[in-house]
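Human
Can I borrow your eye for a moment on a structure tokenisation matter? Give me a protein, with the fold worked out from its sequence. Write it directly below this note and I will take it from there.

Assistant
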Amino acid sequence: MQVGLIGVGKMGGGIAINLIKSGHRLVVHDIQKSQLTAVTQAGGIVVNSPKEVAESSDVVLTSLPGPENVKAVCGGKKGLLASLKPGQVYFDLSTNSPTLTRKLHSAFQEAGVHFLDAPVSGGPFGAASGKLAIWVGGQEAIFNQYKTLLLDIGDEVSYVGDIGAGSIAKLVHNCSGFIMYVALAETFSLGIKAGLEPDILWETVRKGLNGRRPMFDSLARNFLPSNYDEVDFALKLATKDCRLATELAKEHNVPMKLANQAYDELQLGMQRGWGERDARAFMLLQLERAGIEPPSVSKYRIDDVLGDLKNQKVNM
């Protein structure tokens, strides 16, 4: 297949090499010429504009830093919107705005071009090794037609839904991680200032429940089926533990914005009379604020995603 790729930086560079290794003829463009060396050495063909990429390719991919870069590549007389022909296919691998993605989809649709958002996750190492998750939103038939191409650059390729769905999934994934890192900065600074060596603290907490299970797997037990009455750890006990942690933080003069916010949420759950329910019942408060009903995902669907829960080493 003749593939065009715009953007060969930390992510796009690894993606480009894997496309070439998979036997595709690759045409590339990047405004930073220094990033093109490794790709040209591997056999990539460099052109000078998005227009030339479009004219030389069956399918076009973009791997760019953000929305403004995608808009720049798509717009103008030599941009993709003016250059791609009816029937051509364009996957945006960038982490983009769902709103912009939908606007671009409408514009490309009017031009007869198939546009899909397909953000990737795995970092530069994943891009180089082919260990990328790719979440695709758009026309499912086009996704199925080009899935083998996407599998040449990623090992976990999923159709998520309509246009913009891939971008939504990516933003939820990344924002969850950043919030978790802010939380870990708080709690580890507490542990270190309270007297533990950083390596001992890290080694120790990895062996606890939260250290042994993947972060998102914990949603399977309570949040997804909206079942907070099969109690693993009671809300009243969680409230007590969080209170003790925030008291320790005050004792050692460690600011804990997220911990205090979590404690407030737990206390609100207690005020609702949920003390004997599972600790994660407080998650219902945010759903209520967002104006959405609690999810009701069946056990069969959860088992399908996770595999046989009986074989899980850690209780979800």
Observations:
- Residues 309-316 have pLDDT under 50 and may be disordered.
- The first strand starts at residue 2 and ends at 6.
- The CA atoms of residues 88 and 170 lie 25 Å apart.
